[in-house]
Amino acid sequence: MTPNNIKEVRFRKSFRGYDVRSVEAYKEEVAKAYANLLEEKEDLEEKLRVVAGRLQEYIKEEDSLSKAILCAQKTGDQLVAEAEEKAARIVEHANQQTEQMMENTRRQIEREQLSLNRLQHEVSNFKSKLISIYKTHIELITALPDEEVDESARSVKVEEKADAPAKSRASEEKAEEEENLAYN
């Protein structure tokens, strides 16, 4: 039904019927109202089409966003897994380096301990040899005869004093030889 159909409707006239002018005026109002409603309906249908189109776009965007979110989630999970793996490798490498450093330090301590023991042994040997040399010197000094005062001994002492520098050097050389033999 259109507004023109309403306007063109003809009623039969009867003896006691409605006033033709008021019926025509009413038909005109109804036609205008109907035309307005049809126009409003067309506007609403156009708006509905626009909204439906936007809705389809939003649905597509929602699908795209869902896919993007899913992809981002997967990428994030992958990055986290890679970061955890890298962190584990770094920790493992650091542990290996620490163990290696500790092993090197332990070896160095052992070497230093051996060196210390060797030096202590050498010092002990040197002290023993030195004490042995001193004992030998003390025994030699103790074995020397006590000096008696008589004239013949004095003359020998005077001669010895004259020869003392030469003998002194000879005795020093002999002492050095004995000392060297004791070290060897």
Explain what this protein looks like in three dimensions.
The protein is 89% helix and 0% strand. The protein starts with a helix and ends with a helix. The longest helix is centred in the middle third of the chain and has 124 residues, at 20-143. It folds into two domains: 3-142; 152-184. Helix 2 (20-143) runs antiparallel to helix 3. It is mainly α. The protein has helices spanning 3-8, 20-143, 151-183. The protein contains three helices and no strands.
Distance between the termini: 139 Å
What is the tally of helical segments? Answer: 3
How many beta-strand runs? 0
User: What spatial form do the alpha-carbon principal axes imply?
Assistant: rod-shaped
**Rg:** 65 Å
Q: Ranges with pLDDT <50 over ≥5 residues?
A: none
User: Oligomerization state of this entry?
Assistant: single chain
% residues in beta strands: under 5%
User: Class by helix and strand content?
Assistant: mainly alpha
Succession of helices and strands: HHH
In the residues, how many domains can be counted?
2
Main β-sheet, in a few words?
A: none
Proportion in helices: over 70%
Average pLDDT metric: 83
Give the gist of this structure:
The chain has 184 residues and is an all-alpha fold. The chain has helices at residues 3-8, 20-143, 151-183.
